[in-house]
Amino acid sequence: MHPLPRPLSLAFFGISTFLALSGIIMVLTGFRGGWPVLALFGAGAFVFAHMLWPQTFHRRRQDAATLIARFPGPVTLYSSRVRYFSLAVGCAAFAVLLLFLLLDADPTDPPMPALRQVILWLGVGFLSLCASVMMAGVLVGQRLELDGDGFTMVTLGRRKFWRWRDVEGFKAGAMTPISVRFLPKLEMKMVVFDDVTLPETALIRMSRDATGRNSGLHDAYGLDYTQLAWLLETWREKAVAGSQAAPAAPVRDDEFVPVSAAYPNG
Q: 159 is in which domain, residue-wise?
């Protein structure tokens, strides 16, 4: 997960770390608003650290060549729980900030307009829901299961299965969800492929225009995206080649033996 250019990520990490340390000083000195500052920028520093040095947060690094040697499996690849945890922390930090704006108002100030309160409470609820979903991802986990018939993506207990003969063209790709002039280009890396069973709808055409394929996996499951694409394409080729059984040889007329000759005694 590294959608920003590395120099920009380093700059954001440095700024977030500095402001998080400032939040610690604010908390220790009793300055008002120290905890929201610490929560928000501490979460930011953690997220940018995970983007910059993802290998630090993984206990082991899998190798695609080792995994392909285990064909036809089954083989299970697991997503990084730290990724979900970092997203949960980020959502929770923003929820805390909005809650602070709602509940820590100065009694001498005029009351906050009702519409602003509703918007802030909706923001708290939405971010809290996002944090809960991300924490569920930490607890339950996400995985990719490969076998001789196909592959299954398991997300929060939900299973999605593709057969190898129904998919093709795995490659590492990226999608740009937001493109604003004068701002850094954001890219969401993924593994894309074609699912031949999908109908050609407007949404599918949009996906194909953006990535060159009609389907994709947004997680690398402990590999980098190039390795995962190679693993899936090579596994698919092996599975499809193995499923194409040789046709039975035709039986010639001269190979038939009359029943009377085979059993002369009746």
A: 70-77+148-242
